[in-house]
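Write out the bound-state structure for protoporphyrin IX containing FE.
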Amino acid sequence: MENTSQVIIEVKAKVEAHNAAVKKRRRRQHRIALLSVAFILAFAFALPMASYTAHWFGSTAVAQDGGAAASTNPRSNYWRAVKEGVSGYSAVDGPESNVLIQMNGTYWEQTRSSFWVQKLPWIIAGMAVLLLLYHLIHGRNKLDKPTAGRKLKRWGWFDRLVHWVTAISFIALAITGISMLIGKAALIPLLGKAGFASAAQISLQVHNVLGPVFFVGISLMILMWVWYNFPTKVDLQWLKEGGGLFKKAHPSAGRMNAGEKIWFWLLATLGVVVCLTGVAMVLPVYGIALPAWAETVPWLSGSRAEMQQANLLHGVLAVIWTAVALGHIYIGTAGTEGAFEGMATGYVSEEWAMQHHDLWAKKLIDKGKLIEPGESGGRQQPDATIAPSS
Ligand code: HEM
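---
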């Protein structure tokens, strides 16, 4: 009898300890989620505020006044011909050096300021609203079973380093890029013309420095993770079931599910075009001349017309990409319990792995890679030796 009550007390104590641990973990996850949101917001506000402060302290930036006094040109026919592309003679040697007025620039400016380009960033706001609605209606994708403390290694330290450097630079590039694209309309009313000139200058500099960092990050991501992202039959079934997004089901998946693979290939195609068009614009800033053969690569010729095309393509694709990235960020934070933990620590719980990537988890468990509570998994490699998702 005494023995039975002793056992009951011990079981109760274990259950209480477990519940306390779960509560502690949930509080930690909430703290991390709140901190991430605060970090992103601080980041978003830091740029305009920094530029505003710079302006107050006498930044040298000068607002460009579009309404400069117009003067009548007595040689209008001459200039009309120049505008139409009649080339002159110049002692300066270089591409397009004898083109006095490049009219394409006017068309570029008109397209860039056109209604559709200026309103495009609203798709990011639209995506944010959709995600918020989904979250309010559907709620968080929680774990079906409580965690027992056993873990699997999912990401190595270098994977996580590359992911977070790329992610943080992406957010900074998105904020600075959008403030340059629609800043005239959105920021001049807030900061004034001179304040916006400083904001645009700082944004451009941050954009030019982080752009190459991001390109390196994304190239590494593609090289390191392409093996996990080749489509398989399982992905079709996953897609048919809508990834379980609207039901409580969890379709089978290998190391990466079909949704993640789509995100990956978007990044490896559209993302690369965004980066290449960025390179086309940033090379002259760093004074880098490409070898002659590179001039045949689209957007790399260095001509102003190509740079203008590159600029438009870069802006439009980047805005679309940012909207899609919001979906990825939501799923990786508030949307799915335990996903952020994986990219933050490198480890995921056995329950998370079985719920979201059952085929991958079973393979690892069969290979004896399950890490028991208290056991260090530090020396275990993620699963580079495991065949890509199936
Ligand atoms: C704050 C923003 C972000 C958060 C919270 C986040 C979160 C995550 C998480 C949790 C995973 C792991 C998913 C898993 O283990 O199955 C992941 C994977 C990944 N993330 Fe992010 N991410 C963010 C931003 C970005 C950005 C901006 C990019 C690229 C531009 C990116 C690219 C990737 C890629 C390529 C993967 C692997 C997907 C695959 O290989 O199929 N992430 N992210």
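---
Confidence is low (pLDDT under 50) at residues 59-69, 379-390.
Residues 2-56 form the longest helix (55 residues).
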